[in-house]
Amino acid sequence: MSTSKKSQKQDTRLAHAGRDPARFDGFVNTPIYRGSTVLYPTLQCLEANDQDYSYGRLGTPTVDALQTALAELEGGHATLLTPSGLSAISATLLSFVSSGDDILVSDSVYRPTRRFCENVLKRLGVATTYYDPLIGGGIAGLLTDKTKLVFTESPGSQTFEVQDIPAIAEAAHKRGAVVIMDNTWATPLYFKPFSHGVDVSIHAATKYIVGHADAMLGAITTNKATRAAVARTHDELGLCPGPEDVYLGLRGLRSLSVRLARHQASGLEMAEWLAGRPEVAQVIHPARPGDPGYALWQRDFTGASGLFSIVLKPCSQKALAAMLDGLTLFGMGYSWGGYESLILPFDPRSYRSATTWQVEGSALRLHIGLEDVEDLKADLDAGFARLAKA
Ligand SMILES: *Cc1c(COP(=O)(O)O)cnc(C)c1O
């Protein structure tokens, strides 16, 4: 007896969602479809547009496979892919605003999201108000009849504030505002946006879904009510990701659960080890008891990824450079979510406006990859020794 899709566990769906081998001569993976033109067999079919595919930009079986799988895993109505996480964000924002509207955006949002609001949206006559990510139901005090949407990202970029998404969604919906969430950190596996009141969920699939630092990809998943608005903007902006990148997203997705379990365990172990280091003033990891975000993380999330931050005790720039420049396993560079460990200094003081970031030492964001944690500790241990010596 075969089980129904609905009764199957998440890991089973991760292996099977969006796949139809019988359609592709038995091949397990949906092939890479490249193409612009799709031929219609008859004039009648052309005029009625009576076939599944009409033009390369508007979808292919490869794109459909990943869209179907992501919509199912997120618990949403439908997913649309875009060429990057940022284009998923900008297309979503553009779907709901017109000149004269206001929007509310979390102060700890991914910085390029903020830039899009401050440049493009501002030029189009849309005003952005940034709010404290920890505002919760207090967001009711900022909502007006002109507020079209509330943009959330939880945990926040770099500083990992966990937002009370259900409380924010309840207040926003009372005023008719759409709730958007950048759900990249948790992936579709560890936070279910649609059962917490979110209307549109966004992923930089570039990160954990692709998982190997070899492609750029974004995903927008909507509920039923927001589907038409987002689909229309997505179509009108002409957003179509490259076929190889979509294929790499599908390929990454199949191993997401096992990779994340390791990122989570190694991340927590590294966070614990760092918390015991004399050079470290603070560890910011919402899945650690005692972290300000822990209670909400425990209530709403089912897991943690491998991305968190630390604050060092004050040291000179020269000492910091000595530590970072000599690392052999931790690389310095943007993005995260791949198999490799990364470390990146950050300082949000110059651009956050609704909250203040008050720490004395240098802040570092770490992505814990799939390496052996003992080797990662040794790499940082040697880095701390260089820092002390410089
Ligand atoms: C990286 C990132 C994005 C943007 O994704 P790209 O694919 O790089 O455009 C969006 N949101 C968050 C939280 C990210 O970390």
UniProtKB/TrEMBL annotation:
Belongs to the trans-sulfuration enzymes family. Its cofactor is pyridoxal 5'-phosphate. It comes from Methyloceanibacter marginalis. Pfam families: Cys_Met_Meta_PP. InterPro entries: Cys/Met-Metab_PyrdxlP-dep_enz (IPR000277), Cys_b_lyase_bac (IPR006233), PyrdxlP-dep_Trfase (IPR015424), PyrdxlP-dep_Trfase_major (IPR015421), PyrdxlP-dep_Trfase_small (IPR015422). This is Cystathionine beta-lyase. The keyword Ubl conjugation does not apply. GO terms for biological process: L-cysteine catabolic process to pyruvate; transsulfuration. It catalyses: L,L-cystathionine + H2O = L-homocysteine + pyruvate + NH4(+). The modification N6-(pyridoxal phosphate)lysine is found at K207. Keywords: Lyase, Pyridoxal phosphate. It comes from the Bacteria. The keyword Chaperone does not apply. GO terms for molecular function: cysteine-S-conjugate beta-lyase activity; pyridoxal phosphate binding.
